[in-house]
């Protein structure tokens, strides 16, 4: 597919297409959560490597987390680091579609990007299932042109819409709640201090 405007990209993702747009880290492949299986297919990604849900703001994401006495602690970490390059892996509620994490429905990764374009898209689509834009095992692609070439069936945001967007080329830090503390699953752009 050709590169498209933000309006066309939002319409496309709402219609069930996989799309790509910049974030504050590496560009994302994204789809409606119930269409997340398409991302696994495009990326040739193993189903035991879950996707994350990205939202425009934290309040868009909390319904995907199990109610718990620890929820306030998770929210405090989110208030410190979101929007930003931190993915929190938390106990999943029944609202998480199986397509996002096909082999383990017990957890869900959540993130709010510090990127105006991404937040604008997510505010209009609701939370999306996302991952880095690349074939599984390959380095993340950095530009919309590279993504369009690698994934011709993905709607990518036109370069004119992202020209002023700057992003880090390091993925987000991934921190999983163990029940007592945070375990760093991937050290990325943010150093979590708890």
TrEMBL record:
GO molecular function: ATP binding; double-stranded RNA binding; L-threonylcarbamoyladenylate synthase; tRNA binding
Gene Ontology biological process terms from the UniProt entry: regulation of translational fidelity; tRNA processing
Keyword Zinc attached: no
GO annotations of cellular component type: cytoplasm
Domain YrdC-like: 3-190
Gene3D superfamilies: DHBP synthase
Reactions it catalyzes: L-threonine + hydrogencarbonate + ATP = L-threonylcarbamoyladenylate + diphosphate + H2O
InterPro entries assigned to the protein according to its UniProt record, in alphabetical order: DHBP_synth_RibB-like_a/b_dom, Sua5-like_dom, TC-AMP_synthase_SUA5
Keywords: ATP-binding, Cytoplasm, Nucleotide-binding, Nucleotidyltransferase, Transferase, tRNA processing
Localization per record: Cytoplasm
Pfam families attached to this UniProt entry: Sua5_yciO_yrdC
EC category: transferase
EC number(s) on file: 2.7.7.87
Record flagged with keyword Nucleotidyltransferase: yes
Family to which the UniProt record says this protein belongs: Belongs to the SUA5 family.
Protein name as annotated: L-threonylcarbamoyladenylate synthase
Species, as recorded: Gloeocapsopsis dulcis AAB1 = 1H9
Phylogenetic placement of the source organism: Bacteria, Bacillati, Cyanobacteriota, Cyanophyceae, Oscillatoriophycideae
